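Order emerges. One example.
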Amino acid sequence: LPGPALPGPDDLRPLLGSLNVGRRSHTATLLPSNVVLVAGGFRQGTAVTDRAELYIGEVFTLLAARMVEGRAGHTATLLEDGRVLLAGGWREVAPGDILATDSAEVYDPQLGTFTEVGSLTTERVDHRAVRLPDGRVLVTGGSQLEGGFLTDLDSAETFDPVSNTFA
């Protein structure tokens, strides 16, 4: 006997809610409060968004505060104090024109704000970041544009959340 039909994507949509801003190459970070921060990404083509939203109780809520810089292909790392470091990625300099960025910012869930912090030592996209046991963040690899071509990076750097600087 056939079993019950499995739910398809259209069956799940009403249960999960919908993002307020369609996006790809964004980040989703679980905060200590069991709320998810969804930040940045490409909206369509090369259009980068500076909007972020929170996923709370199966509902997406657009934040009033905008990110300091729209970014996609970036990293989002939860810091020990509950803030989130957003680093690097693509930024849109003109419609259809994107560049890698070395900028970074921190989201503070207590204040609901984004604040610029020190810059990465090099522009990076599609890199990785992880919080170390001492609270610093290790940022590794990724790519950068050189003469219109992507070059893979073999470098690494750290972010110190006390001084808000990279080394």
